[in-house]
Design brief:
Blueprint lengths: L6 E8 L2 H10 L16 H15 L7 E10 L8 E15 L5 E13 L5 E12 L5
Antiparallel strand pairs: 1-3, 2-5, 3-4, 4-5
């Protein structure tokens, strides 16, 4: 069983100019800042990782799971050409009764993005997934 504090996945990824440009266009990030990384760019690599964690590692039923919350904390700029290491750590895995009946499983996972070159922490992201109980609205 996965316990709070356990590292449940780790992945390295480059901050590629092409992916960065696609993302910047999608979120309408100003072109006047060609060397800045949009604040939510870390979703690009973590989206696939989150999907795998939700279904394979944590065993949540994707059909009953919704995105609950996302929070970011920044420590240093992420730059094009950086190689980042993303570590996913379980923060909590709780079950509670929903207001409209049924039980909900609420899972919080923290992602830390560090520079592979320096080990410096650049960004911390916390995501919350909520699995609605069978029969709940």
């Amino acid at each position: 069983m996965i316990a709070p504090g356990d590292v449940i996945a780790e992945r390295d990824f480059p901050v590629e100019h092409g992916k960065l440009r696609e993302f910047a266009l999608a979120v309408r990030h100003p072109e006047s800042e060609p060397f800045s990384v949009p604040p939510t760019f870390t979703m690009v690599p973590s989206a696939r990782l989150v999907e795998r964690l939700v279904t394979e590692v944590l065993g949540l039923d994707r059909a009953r799971t919704v995105h609950g919350e996302q929070a970011y904390e920044y420590f240093a700029p992420i730059r094009p050409g950086d190689l980042l290491r993303c570590s996913a750590r379980m923060l909590s895995d709780d079950v509670k009764e929903g207001r409209r009946g049924g039980r909900m499983r609420i899972v919080r996972v923290e992602f830390e993005y560090r520079s592979v070159a320096t080990g410096k922490l650049l960004c911390r992201e916390v995501t919350t997934s909520i699995e609605k109980g069978e029969g709940s609205l």
